[in-house]
Structures are given as C-alpha cells and as structure tokens.
Amino acid sequence: MVPLLPPLLDHDGRHARVSIVTGSYGAGHDAAARELARHLGDAGCAVTIHDVAELLPLRLGPLLRSTYYTQLRRRPDSWDATLRRLEPGRSMHRLATTGLRIGAGPVARAVAGADLVLTTHPFGAQALGHARRRGWLEAPAVTYLTDASVHSLWVSRHVDLHLAIHDVAADQARAYGGRAVTIRPLVSPPAGPGADPLAALEIIGPRALVVGGSLGIGELEQAAHDILATGAMTPVVVCGTNTTLRRRLDAVPGVVALGWRADLAALLTTSDCVVQNAGGFTSLEALASGTPVITYRPIPGHGTANADSLDRAGLVPWVRTSEDLRAALTSALREPRVDRLPAGAPTVLDALTAVDAPDGTLEAA
C-alpha cells in the first residue's frame, strides 16, 4: 500500500487537502475531529471539517441525534440491547447499514476535491465506505475510532484504514473485517500549571472529578454519594447540559455540582482523580494530563464495552463495586502524575504516511 496521505506539498506547491467528517452526537466526536484538524494542520495540510448529521438527507441526521439523546437520557439501559441487535447478521444491522448508505452521495459531494478523508463517527464510516465501494469517492478514506471499544457500525470493509487508540480496539475492528492499526490517541496538550478554576469554592481535601459526557448521563448521582461515603475525596460532578441533575446534587451537602464547563482541561489537571462512566474522549484527556482515571458505574451498552476494553488495555481500571471504590480512590492519590497514554505507538501522521512492511506492519515511507 502506498502512503494514504499524499506529499504535504506537491510539485506545484499545493498543500495536501484533508476533509474530516465528524458527527455531532455528543462532544467526543467533535473533539476528536478538532484534534485531527490541529494535528494535520500543524503538519501543513489544508483541513476542512463537515458534520455528517447535517449532510444526511431528509433531515435524518437531526432526527437520529434527537432519538439518540432521548434514549441516553431516558433509557440508557436500552443501549446494551441496541448494540447486540447491531451485530452483523441481525436485521437491525442490515437496516442501519442500508439506511446510512443514503448519506454516501451527500458526504462524497461535500468532500469532493480532498486528497484524504477521515471520519470520527460511525455514520461517517458507513457513508464513506459505501462511497468508496461505488466509486463516488476516489480519495482514501480513514476512520478514527474515538471509542475504546468498537461496535459493528464503526467498521466498513471499504474504508482504507481504521485508526484505533489501543490494541484491543484494533483487534475488534479487524474482527469485523476492517484494516486497523494502533496509534497514540490525539488529545489537546495538557493544561500547564495554573490557577485552580474551583479555588473560590474552597474545597477541602482531595477531589474526584465525576464525568458523564456532555449530556451528564448515567448513575452520576449515585456515584457522587458513593464517593462521599468513602471519605477519601470530595465528589465534583460535571453535569454538562443535565440541569436536573445539577439541581438535585446542589442540594446534597458535601457534593460540588458543576454545569457546562469550557475549562475542562484545567479541571482535569487540578483534580486528584477522574471518575468516568462512558470511556469517552475525556478519559483520554485525563490520561494525557497525568490525572489518574477510574471507571465506575458505567452506562450500559457502549459504556460497559468501553470500560472492559480500557481495563483490558491496562489504561483505566474498572471499579465494579462500592466496596472497592475507597481503595481505588486511595490508590489514585499515590500514583505519580505522568502521561498515561501508551508510549511508542505511531502518531496519526505516522500511520497516514506509512507503507506496508513485508511482515504486515507499517513502516515509515
């Protein structure tokens, strides 16, 4: 295979053009798209970003987003059954992949002229894969797997490459028939030493930052009570857009409830532990900042799948019981503050400019 990314400057002095297709279904996919744009832009590429939710025809994108948000808020427990039904061979998988093909044409037209197209969302992966299969997209297509675990919609056999954030996810992508390599996850540079954004609250003792994504979903309230009961840390809960949760937690003595925050990097850096439930992009940012991370009370479906993958990869331990929680928080206080993301894996740019080696691995071009 030749390198996926063409020379950053061709003989006419033109910058390589890269299009990124994100999906505004939660903040993690957009955050990954921004990091890809930063990474490739710094390397000299001309980068544009598109939202698959706005490209799907018949207003299907906003409809799917509304359905997704409603399901997560009202019935997060149903996600486990949904993911099982999306396995290849099931009728829902056939329906989903067939339905998402209608986005192939609009997506291909939006990224026309690009030398390379990347996507950070499963809907984008399916649309790009179908566009490649039909010959509507000549540029190579790459899927950046933002999740720690990989469900079937993430993988299209017709996408040229899948970039996984650890070997467990790469193996899962290969099991679904995709070509995958492990790369070092892309996250924003850790926030340097600075003022504590919560200094005015005068929180006494170590604190655990409890996160549940931008929607503030899952058993965050119970997690806060469990952390409080250990006496090891003060729970600081980032409720995101979940105003109902914030109002309830505001009434609990000893719990600090926050709404939507634009200074999450500083909150991660100044916390003593991050307690997460979905294995999303925030987990990677915390690992890069050096703050210890644990999974506790993961949401069903992709949350538990991500928890299992992160635990097996040795990145984030999954604390399964309230009895084990105090020991996990106490252990976090003893951990050194170092970047915990896997060292030695190639960067995105390395993977995109690599070629196949004789042993099937990738080597520099």
UniProtKB/TrEMBL annotation:
Keywords linked to the UniProt accession: Glycosyltransferase, Transferase
Domain Diacylglycerol glucosyltransferase N-terminal, chain residue ranges per copy: 29-183
Domain of life of the native organism: Bacteria
InterPro entries per UniProt: Diacylglyc_glucosyltr_N, Glycosyltransf_28_UgtP
Signal peptide: none
The keyword Transferase is annotated on this UniProt entry: yes
Family of this protein: Belongs to the glycosyltransferase 28 family.
Protein name: Galactosyldiacylglycerol synthase
